[in-house]
Amino acid sequence: MYKIKEVAKMLGVSTATLRYYEQEGILPNIKRVNGIRVFNDEDFKWLRVLNCMKKINMPIKKIKEYIDLAMMGDSTLKERYHLILEQKEFIKAEIAKLNNCLKEFEYKEWYYKTAIKAGTEAAVKNMPKSSPTLEIDEIPVKIKRKDL
Amino acid sequence: MYKIKEVAKMLGVSTATLRYYEQEGILPNIKRVNGIRVFNDEDFKWLRVLNCMKKINMPIKKIKEYIDLAMMGDSTLKERYHLILEQKEFIKAEIAKLNNCLKEFEYKEWYYKTAIKAGTEAAVKNMPKSSPTLEIDEIPVKIKRKDL
DNA sequence: TCTTGACTTAAAGTCCACTTTAACATATAT
DNA sequence: ATATATGTTAAAGTGGACTTTAAGTCAAGA
Q1: Of A55, A88, A109, the CB nearest to B84
Q2: CA B18 – CA B84 distance, rounded (Å)
Q3: Which residue range forms the structural domain that includes residue B17?
Q4: Which residues in A lie closer than 8 A to residue B101 (C-beta atoms)?
Q5: Domain count, chain B
Q6: A61 CB-to-strand C distance under 7 Å
Q7: Is there a contact between B98 and A97 if contact means CB atoms under 8 Å apart?
Q8: In this structure, what CATH number is given to the domain that contains residue A20?
């Protein structure tokens, strides 16, 4: 059983953020003792899920939607299932994109290493198709988070 | 050689966004023909890198810093190398976190599948430690993007 | 010629996710 | 007893990344 400050510290967020989350309805059912928030195991379980949803940039509104569905009970199971599936696919796509970015940065790492060795960037620029790691040439089209 | 609208379409962003990027200095050296922006191969190369930097949520200011260093020439090679390394490590950490989130969502997928089969959530809740995929129990502490 | 569409700039507006402030209550330590 | 720390709420403020608006230029087609 923890009070807000301890929870905030554990999560690496501010107390204001936790209060804001509660206000927005994405941190529901927090019990009060003498008007003071007390977080229990259930709350921590949800915080772990919330953490994931925030990590993938789900808007607060969307998270709220999910909670509202959950509050309605078994009748919304399928809807929640689809929402979760959708987000799962989104994460997968996201990881793929980040892996591409990682390659780009690994190329840059090699680029600068080589340039530093040579003392000048010009040396690397004149090596055509010189990258050991970079093969991607197209720019992926941006898909906005709010679309999902 | 493309004009702004075509470029915007290719990238999946608005023309306003591209103009805004140029204004903020993260889309430098775009040539004009009769006052109209014309994007060349060099610009596309940079757009691919920019795309990666945006993908990992590098703030515009930080991207600008990188560009400013690049503009200064060979004297900033080491600094740029370190910036890139830092970002590379950040992406790696990010991918690791997303993989954890993926697990969480895969667990939820299983959870809802099972609940739907049973017709009620209660059935799943009463299976203790029932998850086939979820082992993580702690909530990762949030590290804010601006710290890097 | 005139309208349509694509371009330009500068400035103001919007949205989201917090963050800060102010005013107050309660609890613990010296 | 009194200072310090932590908690509370409601409301206003902030920062970042665009987005929209307004006013204008220019080129091609009917």
Answers
A1: A109
A2: 23
A3: 2-57
A4: 52, 55-56, 91
A5: 2
A6: yes
A7: no
A8: 1.10.1660.10
In a domain, A73, yes or no: no
- The residue length of chain B stands at 148
**Bases along strand D below 7 A from a protein CB:** 6-9, 16-21, 26-27
Quick one: tokens of A131? 């990258």
Domain annotation covers residue A68: no
> DSSP string of A24-83?
TTSS---EEETTEEEB-HHHHHHHHHHHHHHHTT--HHHHHHHHHHHHTGGGGHHHHHHH
Task: Write the pLDDT tens digit of every residue in B87-126.
Answer: 999 999 999 999 999 999 999 999 999 999 999 999 998 7
Residue B64 lies in a domain: no
Beta bridge partners of A32: A37
* Contacts of residue B33, Cβ cutoff 8 Å, sequence gap at least 6: none
A22 occurs within a structural domain = yes
Q: Is A94 helix (H, G, I), strand (E, B) or coil?
A: helix
* A18-60 residue pLDDT tens: 999 999 999 999 999 999 999 999 999 999 999 999 999 999 9
How far apart are the two ends of chain B, measured CA to CA in Å? 35
B4 CA to C8 C1' in angstroms comes to 12
| Phi, psi values for residue A2, rounded to 5° | -125, 150
